Amino acid sequence: MTDLTTTTARDLLPEWRLALTSERKSPKTIALYLDAVGRYLTWTETQDLPPMRRTSLQTWITTMLAAGRSPSTARIRQQAVRRYAAWLLAVGHLDGAPFQGMTSPKLDQPVVDPLTVAQVRALLQTCQPEAADVPATARPLRHARDEAIIRLMAETGIRLSEVIALTAGDLDLATGLVTIRRGKGGRGRVIPIGQATATAIRTYLAVRTTQPHADREELWLGERRCGLAADALYRSLRRRAERAGITGFRPHRLRHTAAHRWLAAGGSESGLMAMAGWTRVEMLIRYTRANASERAAAEARRLDLGNL
C-alpha cells in the first residue's frame, strides 16, 4: 500500500498502541505519540491531504510553526508521525518510507538561569507556618510536602515526573538514598540526599500519617484523598514562586539549579551525569550553559596559567 488514507491510518492506531505497550514505552510517551499522530491525521483530513506524503508532513510542521508553536513541540510531533510511519512500514501497511531522510526542525538553545541560593531559600520560606510557635509537624500537609519536594529537586535535580512516581519504599532515609525505579528512557538510578532534605522528608512523613488517605501507595499525597498529580504539583510550586517574587519560574528550573550548584561546588561532570540520569554529555552542556563562563573564569583564576 503506497498511500494510506487518513481513515485507515486512524483505524490502525490501536494496533500501534499495543505495539508501543509491548515495547515497554512509558504511558506518558505513548500518550504523547498518539496525541501527536491524532492531531496530524485530523489536520490532513481537514486539508484533504494524504497523510503518508512527505509534503503533507512538511506543510503541517510549517503551519504549526507559523501559528506560534515552539520548535520543540513541532519537533516532538514530527518525530511521532515519523515513528508511526516507520511502524506502518515494518508491519506491511506501507510499501515505502515516506519520511526517510527528513530532518527535524532546528531547536533554539535558550539559556535557563538557575535560581540563586536566596531565591531557593525564599521558595522554601513560603512553606513555613506564619506563626513562629507552630511545630513543623503541625503544618498543613501541602507545606510539609512542598518543602520536602523543593529540597529534593534543588539538591538532586530529580525530574518532576520522577518525584511524582516515588513511593515510600523508594526511600532509605537512614543511609540517605532515594531509588528512582524508572526514569526517562526507562533508566533507573539511586541518588543520595543530604541531612536537610532527609529531615524535611521525615517531617512530611510524620504529617502524612495523620491524613485519612495515608494508606495510599504514592509517597506524595494531595489534599483531596488522592495521590499528588504532576499538574497539581506544577501549579503549587508556581504559586509559591510567585509569592517568593521569582519571575519566569518553572519547576524544571530546579533541575538546572541543582546542576549548576553541583559543578560550582567542585563536583565532577561524570558524577553530575550519574546524579541527573544523563547518558549524553550534550545534556550536561545544555543544563549548565547559563553559568559556564562564570565557572570557566573561576577555574582560570585557580589554574593561573599566565603566571610564567
UniProtKB/TrEMBL annotation:
InterPro entries xrefs: CB (IPR044068), DNA_brk_join_enz (IPR011010), Integrase-like_cat_sf (IPR013762), Integrase_catalytic (IPR002104), Integrase_recombinase_N (IPR010998), Integrase_SAM-like_N (IPR004107), Tyrosine_recombinase_XerCD (IPR050090)
Keyword hit for DNA-binding: yes
UniProt keyword annotation of Protease present: no
Key words of the record: DNA integration, DNA recombination, DNA-binding
Signal peptide: none
Occurrences of domain Core-binding (CB) (ranges): 7-89
The protein, known as: Tyrosine recombinase XerC
GO molecular function, one term: DNA binding
UniProt organism field: Nocardioides dokdonensis FR1436
Domain Tyr recombinase span(s) in chain numbering: 110-301
